[in-house]
Write a structure and sequence with these properties.
The chain is of the alpha+beta class. It has 4 helices and 9 strands.
Length: 183
């Protein structure tokens, strides 16, 4: 049974909590570093020479692991804009750009992508894992690509759903989704 005093206490406590809450989303440097480490599939203890610099609405994050050197450009919204990985003399760089297509060409391109794309067994398993993880069917998405990075033994699966590009990494041995980035 709720008494008048306990009701006053609960109301006051609720108002106190409401007054203390922040309005809006604030992403910290620790959050940005976690995004980069998650994408690189690296733990905190594996990262050395960590550097986070603020630059024109983004953060530049770099660190080294036993596997190589990583550098990321991550927006203050937590979305990876650019990534590069360097192992010895080899360097791989990927950049995420939003490309707008005319509306009338969209249905034709979607149909072409769905009909002209074929994947090997491993790629299809990686795609199936990402789609199941997202609660989607292959027919729900367009522009599906899948590639294997033999250095990291990971598949990178990219697809478009409602004009939003999703990129996911999948362990090539267990077909476990390691990270998913909406961009």
């Amino acid at each position: 049974m709720v008494t008048r005093n306990s009701l006053i206490f609960l109301t006051t406590f609720g108002l106190l909590l409401t007054g203390c809450s922040k309005s809006g989303l604030e992403i910290t440097k620790d959050d940005i570093l976690e995004v980069a480490r998650d994408d690189a599939n690296a733990t905190k203890s594996e990262c050395e020479n960590v550097s986070i610099k603020e630059q024109k609405g983004s953060y530049i994050v770099s660190f080294n692991t036993n596997g190589g050197s990583y550098e990321y450009k991550i927006g203050k919204d937590g979305i990876i804009k650019e990534r590069s990985f360097k192992r010895g003399a080899k360097e791989e760089t990927t950049e995420t750009k939003k490309v707008e297509e005319p509306v009338k060409e969209e249905t034709t391109k979607k149909e072409e992508e769905k009909s002209s794309t074929s994947f090997d067994e491993g790629q299809q398993q990686a795609i199936n894992a990402v789609l199941a993880n997202s609660g989607l069917e292959q027919s729900d998405v367009t522009n599906i690509t899948c590639s294997l990075d033999s250095n990291t033994n990971q598949y990178t699966v990219t697809f478009v759903l409602n004009d939003v590009t999703t990129t996911a990494t999948v362990d090539a041995t267990t077909f476990t989704v390691l990270s998913t980035i909406l961009g």
